[in-house]
Amino acid sequence: MVIKVFLASSSGSTAIKKKQQDVVGFLEALKVDYTQLDIACNEENRMWMRQNVPEEKKPANGIPLPPQIFNENGYCGDYETFFDAKEDNMVYAFLGLPPPPGSKEAEQADEAHVVENGTHAEETNAEENPDDSIEVPVEERNGDDEATEGETAGDEALAEEDQAVEETDEVTEDTAQAEEEEEQEEEDLQSEEEEELRQLEEQDEQGSEEEEEAEVQEEEETE
User: Fold this and answer.
1) Model confidence, pTM
2) Calpha distance 41→10 (Å, rounded)
3) In terms of DSSP bridges, do strands 34-38 and 3-7 run parallel, antiparallel, or are they unpaired?
4) For 34-75, how does the pLDDT look when each residue is reduced to its tens digit (9 = 90+)?
């Protein structure tokens, strides 16, 4: 499996350059084999990238911006989804690759597997031995004491839950405000990137026209 990273080598956008450097630098740090495909100097690469990015993953204008990441012909994601995977220690899963032994991602996968199997085993044992879960009645006096303690513990748990809900509401408000600011920054960045890509395409079209004019002039001179 070959990881393909589509880049724009001649992009004048600082944001796009930084994103491309982040992706490439992290893949190199993980020693993941990958291939860089330039969309600025190769029209075939550009068209292939645009055609193979899923429609639901494209921006509103339908033109995906670099970097875009593929595993062979399978789409992995763009910079934002790559960044999220990196933050969650899930880059290998994002790339469709098995994590190497000893990596954080491999350890997380092992822990998840153990938890899943352990939960399943507990459920199976409970079904096979239903009598084990039945408690033997105790004296009424002890039962009353335990009930009182249970009510007290329940009240304390309820108070802690209310406090946690209040704290969660405060955090949610702060998070919502931060997300609004981040969305505004992303919109501004998207506009800048779209303008940069448009200029890049105009430069390529102008270069093609100049080459055609030069060929026509050369043929006229030859005649």
Assistant:
1) 0.53
2) 8
3) parallel
4) 999 999 999 999 999 999 999 999 999 999 999 999 999 999
